[in-house]
Amino acid sequence: MKPYSSDLREKIVSAIEKGDSSVRKVAARFTVSENCVERWMLQKRTEGHVVSRKQDGSVSPVMAHQDQLMAIFEQQPDATLAAYCELLFDQTGLWVSQSTMCRTFQRLHLPRKKNTAR
Question: How many CB atoms lie within 10 A of CB 61?
Fold first, then answer.
């Protein structure tokens, strides 16, 4: 979910600061939660602004071992996801599920097609 715009945040905070309405009424008028309004008020008091903070997603722990995973894939391109999970665990001590391994292959654009000629 994207953060609310800074313009909307400023309008909400200024409406509260004017003393026109309560937090509940302002939240209802702008269709945001009361918690958002209270958080933005606190941020305005402590930081002096209501600019949204950077939203970081988490990085998959498998990506830290990307080089080893690529080497495993090159050595055994027709292995199953379960086999890749076991091989990665044997080499790095990191255990991941088959679904995590599948998403990692998708991120790395590695083919999952089996070669029946081998």
Answer: 13
